[in-house]
Amino acid sequence: AASPTCARSERAFRTEDKAMKKLALIAAALVAGFVSIACNTVQGVGRDIQAGGDYLVFPHHENEIAQSEAANGKEFARYWMHNAFLNIDNRKMSKSLGNFRTVREISEQYDLQVLRFFMLSAHYRSPLNFSADLMEASKNGLERIVNAADNLKFLMGNAKAEAITDAEAENFTKTEEFVAGFEKAMDDDFNTADAVAAIFDLVKYINTTTDAESSKEYLQKLFDLLVKLTGVLGLIVDKKEEILDEDIEKLIEERQAARKAKDFARADAIRDELLEKGIILKDTREGVQWKRA
Questions:
Q1: What's the CA angle centered on 223, arms 217 and 226, to 5 degrees?
Q2: Residues 6+ apart with CB under 8 A from 5
Q3: Distance in angstroms (rounded) separating the CA atoms of residues 194 and 123
Q4: pTM for this model (two decimals)
Q5: pLDDT, tens digit, for every residue of 57-103?
Q6: What is the pLDDT of residues 208-255, one digit of tens each?
Q7: Residue range 267-277: average pLDDT?
Q8: Which of 36, 76, 153, 188 is the most exposed place for a label (fewest CB within 10 A)?
Q9: Confidence of residue 2 (pLDDT cuts 50, 70, 90)
């Protein structure tokens, strides 16, 4: 509830009306006070990271710092992370423009892993533009990484040799440069765009240094490294076995029963479970439709 209020307060500061500015300052101070109390009550005094939209820097977050540190005598937050706006087809997303999209609505068109990958494609402090073309590009990019993981699993299942060779061991030491590039990017104010680029470099290296003659140990080490780096970003590349149609229908029936019983937590949990397995649900007047991502 704080963000819309703060946004209105921030806009009010741009007016020439002195009374409006004064009211905006009071409103911002009150909201910041409530947030400071909530944070310090739930999380304790002081925290490593505090985040929010970049429009909250002034006056909301400056008020939080002033009030909390004056009251407690301790640093309110060690690091501040302010994200830029999300645009829709190069226009600011807002209800007034009719281009407002919820995550649930997007999940009816795309696997949420694709949405995550899309969000990671730009630095969080940079504006991000949402469009169908960019989402398709993100889908293709993620598939490239997942396909590399799937290929490694296939090669492991058919590997003729178990132990890693000296040449393979030397090849694996070269992956350290990709890990270094990934860590350097993440240490640079969570530069996820460059971190993803490092993963793509690793994928290219994997595809060019593995084949049917590769040892199982070498393949496993590459697979574990790929899963580790993508896991830092919350990307799931080790896909679970495909769920059968009859099992999908059973889970959908259970979800419908949960919704009827107003057990929305269970209904959402089932939707999330199916999404994790690559099944996208769409609620319509005629009933629930589903498709594989």
A1: 145
A2: 27, 31
A3: 9
A4: 0.71
A5: 888 888 888 888 888 888 988 998 999 988 888 888 777 788 888 88
A6: 999 999 999 999 999 999 999 999 999 999 876 666 678 888 999 999
A7: 89
A8: 188
A9: very low
Neighbours of 107 (CB within 10 A): 19
Q: How many residues does the chain have?
A: 293
If one compares 66 and 187, the residue with the highest pLDDT of the two is 187
Nearest to 121 by CA among 102, 140, 107: 140
190 CB-contact burial (10 Å; exposed 0-12 / middle 13-18 / buried 19+): middle
Q: Give me 38's structure tokens.
A: 């909530």
